[in-house]
Amino acid sequence: MSEQSQKEFELPVKITEEIEQISKELRLSKEKKEKLVEEVRKSYTRGMFEPGEGIGIIAAQSISEPSTQMTMRTYHFAGTAGIRVTYGLPRLIEIFDAKKEPETPMMTIYLKREFNNASEAANLAENLVEKKVLNIVKRISLNLNENSIEVEVLDKRKIESVSKVVKEMIKNSNVKTKEDKVMVAVKTENVKELQKVKEKILSLQVGGVKGVKNAIVRKEGDDWIINTIGTNLSDALKIKEVDERKTYTNDIHETASVFGVEAARNVIIREAMKTMQEQALDIDPRYVMLVADMMTFAGDINSIGRYGVAGAKTSILSRAAFEETIKHLVRASIRNEVDNLQGIFENVMIGQVVPAGTGMFELIVKPDES
Amino acid sequence: MTSIFFDGKFVGNTSEPQRLVDEIVSKRRAGTIPYQVNVTYHEHLDEVRIISESGRVRRPLIIVENGVPKLTNEHVEKMKKGELKWADLVKTGIVEFLDSEEEENAYIALTEKELTVEHTHLEFDPSVILGLSASFIPFPEFNRGDRVNYGAKMVGQSIGVFATNYLLRTDTKSNVMVYPNKPLVKTHAYSIVPYDKHPNGNNVVIAVASFDGYNMEDSIVINAGSLQKGLFWSFMHRSYEAEQKRYLGGQEDIIDMPEAGVRGYAGEDAYKHLSEDGMSFPETDLDSDQVIIGRVSPLRFLGTMDRFVTGLENIRETSVRLRHGDKGIVDRVFVTDTTDGTKLIKVVVRDLKTPEIGDKLASRHGQKGIIALIVSPEDMPFTESGVVPDIIFNPHGIPSRMTIGQMLEIIGGKVAAITGRPVLAPAFSPTPEKELRETLVNNGFRNDGKEIMYDGRTGRRFESQIFIGSAFYQKLDHLVSNKIHARSRGPVTLLTKQPTEGRSKEGGLRLGEMEKDCLIAHGASLVLKERFDSDKTTVLVCSVCGLVAVQDKIKNKRVCPIDGEVKINEVQISYAFKLMLDELKSMLIYPKVVVGEE
């Protein structure tokens, strides 16, 4: 970059603010502050990519080369109080493919300051786990004479909630409670129908957060953390003890729907970096950030692949060369599409100079006016 | 009631399954029932299965009764004298063969020490757990498991004497070692299989040291003197064949010296080794692509004009040539008939492969390496007694791989060389390390196998003592002379006009997808363009319809077949792209090329 353009260059607001703050703290003189700004500007420009540099390919190579060293194994923490999580390459593929549901969905729940203690955490963990009628039932039987279902509950205290849920969810029924039994009378003559209702009762949710299969309490520094298997961010955030500013899920799509794409972008970066670091692979976070940007800049989450980023390329030839050749060619011919041959792949195909690196620019000579 | 199955077929029921099984077993041991029969009672299925089918894998075991093995020292002594044979042991019920099914209900002791009353069988030796290749490895239990695995794999790739009748055979490709050895450190497997007839390597004196960095990263420094004496020499035999085929209409191939002027005639030089009968004599020296068997065939597809031409024009040369990149000497020529009655010629070409830089050698412990330097014997380090190593092995190959077995083999090899008797080191019951070390001390060597050595070039004593001994090395079938390949220009494929692939077709080395990405990442677009111009062509494009135009050579004009004499542009594209345009047209997609302003 020329010296002139370097001076014209505006630093990002965040950096300018930080300089302002630091110079105030250190009581820098005007000259010294100017010098600081100049130094920052220098190193900032040094850190930038040159125009025409193939950052996409460099990012791809920088991520994929270390990934080849990743072991395919997903190991478990045998014997420790932990949760099995997808690790390594499978997890990385999961992230970049933007799979709708991760193989091991997980929430990390932080507690608000006033609830940040062991007993509250243990209590909450207990209450978070989804409970179905199936989990608390002692015996369930069909009474064919009265066309009713008798549900015997293990814990008498739960009987109220069971009858409430059954009343809500089972239509055309008459629910009565008797000691530790809930009697559900159904208006039907059919035994099959009765059986179906029985199955439905068993699968009704009576407590906890839907989708949470297990919760484990952990202490990290001063914080009590609850790790859960299964995520349901929107429901978890409604609980009053939960700190909604810190609570986190590894489900990208769920984050996007609850907090928005910007948050989802951060989850992509955080999860990908975590996966790489777990395998002791050191990559520059900016490459992952670039990938995350590509996946989210359209406003929703796109996978790196034929239905996502690669499928959104403008060039027909480039898309056809990647996957589903015939589909793209036929579609292009029907729509009378034009390939302007401005991308890299197309130019490699036809054997011309690629518009990247040294081939990006052309020299226009101004004829001498005199 | 328990069902009884014989060879998978239901044959009846019994109320006393265990008694039935016991009876069959005892009768089999007595010899009343053939020894191939196996029987089991599956309690959980309530089935008795009697099996006599072929194709089962069975293994011999010593029968144990009341905790006492039936095979006694007496038997062993008698067998040593030759009074008793293996078949006698099977017949008299001392040894029996179990299949996987009967093994299920057997309680087999691994060693005699652990025998109890409950045991039914005794293993001959714990090392029978290993397969053929793995049981060739000495001291395997001292190595990490994966190394034994690699070692066993490489035993399979070693060049040796694969068949004793190799002079009569016409395998497509085979290797035979010239001066093979029996290993100094052995396992039981070497005496069980006919290893004396099928050796697969050489004993070498190995020094664990570095040599000017020429044995970095698993490369090997080897003594030129040893190579001149025949170490690791081998012959590669390759057979070529030509059949004198008959075709419809009475035409047939002619095996003969092709006349000049025949289609595909390669020039006089290619045929100079052929004799009058169209074959080359044994012991003729042949070079790459030279003709071994001369042959001409009638043209299969006659063009419109060819029908009227007779004689030379109507036949095409189909001679058999030496493979591209190969050389060799004609070893044997066989002339016979096929079952169809046509004449068949097989020629075996031999080529001596002396070790050279780039050839792959390996010990039996998964320690492979490439010859990187051949040193004259006078420049090699030597010991006080004047022993010069054949191979210098880099010590860095040991700590991370932890092949202690190889270290022990070197000591064992040294002991064997001193005492003149092979050292036995089968899996789990090797000659004790202590005993080996004692033998070394008793013969005036250090117990750790190290010796004072001197630099052959300067005569100076090395500061540290060097571990030296004897080990068994194999030459693996990955010889550079069979793989070396380079090209700058050469043949292209008809369809795409891109270079051919593969060494035998004198092909190019592909600059692939990932290599392309690297050039882009470096921003080297012009290099990229240059590297991908192997099939570049100049194509005429009509400015109206955007399809390929033609050059009318008679009128010397550029014409578009559709629009006639309009403005026609010249573009330079890869031929593969032109081919793609044609293919798109064939699938009814109109690829219109719009040429921009230059």
Characterise this structure.
The complex is a heterodimer of chains A (370) and B (598). Chain A is α+β, with helices and mostly antiparallel strands. Chain A has helices at 3-8, 13-25, 30-46, 55-68, 88-96, 118-128, 133-136, 159-169, 191-202, 233-238, 252-259, 261-278, 285-296, 316-322, 325-335, 344-350; strands at residues 106-110, 131-132, 137-143, 148-153, 173-178, 181-186, 205-207, 214-220, 223-229, 248-249. Chain A folds into four domains: 3-46, no CATH class; 50-104 and 250-312, PTS-regulatory domain, PRD; 131-207, Gyrase A, domain 2 (2-Layer Sandwich), CATH 3.30.1360.40; 315-359, DNA polymerase, domain 1 (Orthogonal Bundle). In chain A, strand 3 and strand 4 (148-153) form a beta hairpin. Chain A is flat and about 110 Å long. Chain B has 598 residues and is α+β, with helices and mostly antiparallel strands. Chain B has four domains: 2-124, no CATH class; 136-164 and 176-233 and 357-475, DNA-directed RNA polymerase, subunit 2, domain 6 (Dna-directed Rna Polymerase Ii 140kd Polypeptide, Chain: B, Domain 6, Beta Barrel), CATH 2.40.270.10; 235-353, RNA polymerase II, Rpb2 subunit, wall domain (OB fold (Dihydrolipoamide Acetyltransferase, E2P)), CATH 2.40.50.150; 536-586, DCoH-like (Alpha-Beta Complex), CATH 3.90.1800. Helices cover 18% and strands 26% of the residues of chain B. In chain B, the strands form ten sheets. Chain B has a six-stranded mixed β-barrel with strand order 12-26-13-24-23-30. The longest helix of chain B is centred in the C-terminal third of the chain and has 16 residues, at 404-419. Classes of the chains: A alpha+beta (370), B alpha+beta (598).
Q: How is this structure best summarized?
A:
The complex is a heterodimer of chains A (about 375) and B (about 600). Chain A has 16 helices and 10 strands.
Query: Taking all residues together, what is the mean pLDDT of chain B?
Result: 92
- Low-confidence blocks of residues of chain B: none
**Which CATH architecture of the largest domain in chain A is right?**
Orthogonal Bundle
Main sheet attributes: strand count, strand direction, barrel closure of chain A: 4 strands, antiparallel
Q: Describe the largest sheet of chain B.
A: 6 strands, mixed, barrel
CATH structural class of the largest domain in chain A: Mainly Alpha
Full CATH superfamily name of the largest domain in chain B: DNA-directed RNA polymerase, subunit 2, domain 6
The amount of helix of chain B comes to 10-25%
**Proportion of residues in β-strands of chain B:** 25-35%
Using the CA coordinates, give the radius of gyration of chain A: 30 Å
Number of strands of chain B: 34
Overall radius of gyration of chain B:
35 Å
Query: Oligomer, anyone?
Result: heterodimer
Strand composition percent of chain A: 5-15%
